[in-house]
TrEMBL record, chain A:
Keywords: Kinase, Membrane, Transferase, Transmembrane, Transmembrane helix, Two-component regulatory system. It holds the Pfam family HATPase_c. One of its GO terms (molecular function) is kinase activity. The chain crosses the membrane at residues 20-40, 70-89, 95-118. It comes from Micromonospora marina. Residues 237-327 form the Histidine kinase/HSP90-like ATPase domain. This is Signal transduction histidine kinase. Coiled coil: none annotated. GO terms for biological process: phosphorelay signal transduction system. The keyword Translocase does not apply.
From TrEMBL, chain B:
This is Two component transcriptional regulator, LuxR family. SMART domains: REC (SM00448). InterPro entries: CheY-like_superfamily, NreC/VraR/RcsB-like_REC, Sig_transdc_resp-reg_C-effctor, Sig_transdc_resp-reg_receiver, Tscrpt_reg_LuxR_C, WalR-like, WH-like_DNA-bd_sf. The modification 4-aspartylphosphate is found at D50. The keyword tRNA-binding does not apply. It comes from Micromonospora marina.
Amino acid sequence: MASLGVSTATLVQRRPLGSAVATADFALACVLLLVGPLVLVPEERLGTWIGFQPAYALSIVITASGVRSLALWAGGLLGVIACYVIYLGDRVYEAMASTTAGNILTYVVYALVCRMFFGYTRRIARDADASRALAAELARREEERRAQVVLHNGVALMRLLTEPTTGALRARLIDQAEVELRRMRSYLNGRPGPDDATGGRVTLGPLVERVCYRFADLRVDTLLDLGAETELPPDQAEALERALESLLLNIRTHSRAREVVLHADRDEAGAWTLTLRDDGVGFDPSSAPLGVGLRQVVVGELRRLGLHVEIESVVGEGTTVMISSPRQKQDRSRLRGVA
Amino acid sequence: MKPTAAIVDDVPLIREAFELLMTRLDVVASVSTVEELVRGRHDVDVVVLDLHLANGGQPDVRQGVAAIRVLREHNYQVCVYSQEERRFVLAACLAAGASGIVPKALPTERAEQLIVEVAAGGTVIPQPVVGILEVLVRRGCITVLSERQRQILHGRARGLSYAQVAKRLFLSESTLRGYWLDLVRSLSDSLRDLTPGEIERTLGLTPGDLLDVWPRGAADGKDWWLHQDRTRPRGTGSA
């Protein structure tokens, strides 16, 4: 009845019943072992169906091994063994001594194995909890990153719109603001942006020209013949467009560049490289950490999609950004060595 | 000592402004036609040339590629200074022998710096023309370059400065400038030998796209530019 009661309660609660119940279990097993000699003749205490107390005690040792307290578990086990020895009485020293020793060893081994099993299960559960917490934290950071990516260009545009600008530049800024507005709105509505809905592939040349059109004031020299026909998956195209916008905004806002060159290239294997070079003031990458625009919108977002990004900048000598699709290692080395 | 220069432009106001604003140049001649400059036999380090010289007052003068060729025949270093931005027209100027092409849209200080560079024997090639040259080399239309020259062109086409390309190729900047000068001359010669059809095929253009902008030979350069001028609306002679 006790076994059924404990099992039922455990199943209903879907967890062990705790130290109090484990203590009661151990106590019951010990009491049964101690009372056994009063109701059983010596011949019936070992190796018979009538002497059930040792087997019942073993089941308690197994099930109570899940108790958290090491002292309770060890104390309970030693108590059961001691009571078992008392239960057998003089037979311990008779011909059944080896069987008795084997049974005591069984208590110990089962207790250890079950203890290890429960410990291992608990460790898995702890790891699962930690993984869930990590996943929640990563989700929070991903959302934060998405917000930064979506809102960054909009913030930069708003800042530019607050400054006195000429009519033509202001008109272009307003056009760009409309694009950013649509992007922010779709983000807030939880829908993909309008550019996502195309579903088809876009080519590098028109994409670059479209972005440069919004930055006509920079007079970007676009050299796209070698890579203009390169097809891009929609997600890469969208990320690349945002990255270019962010880079050109940086150039417009910070670089004081006289010349800006945007060059596209594609090799025989289909791997492409986009190089954006300005001759502006540059910066020292070792002392000046990348801003949100470069870190999140350019480097983070593009690398997340498997594209390579390299930013080289020297104070007074301008900045070069190379964005490329995955390619053979030796090809990248060749490019770095020359360009 | 300032480098000496001659300015050839059909608009008197631009010539006067040039003399006043380009203070790092010693402008020793200011004329409206190349014929007048050649007649004067001026000894200058560079001729700063507007591409469009024909107007109502001087309808039959040489201009464009024809003007560049005449000046080159008289051993002048030519720096085109124009508002023309069509890359194939600028490439045609390079093919005709111009050492530099400077847009009038540049700030005066920058334009002056580039013209001084040409006067010192350097070359100034607009980035779009460098791009055309790179495509022609990469697609096998121009095959005269060494591997080192290809590397230099590769870097310059991406907008890298002389110093940056020199650093990447472990060269001194002066050595690289020398290489670049030889490279541009070599490419100009090769460009001159190409037909419009070859360039169109290489660049993926529609056949005939270049017929209106590319001279078909040394003899017809003048006629080509005269034709261009007749198709332009009146009052655009100051380009």
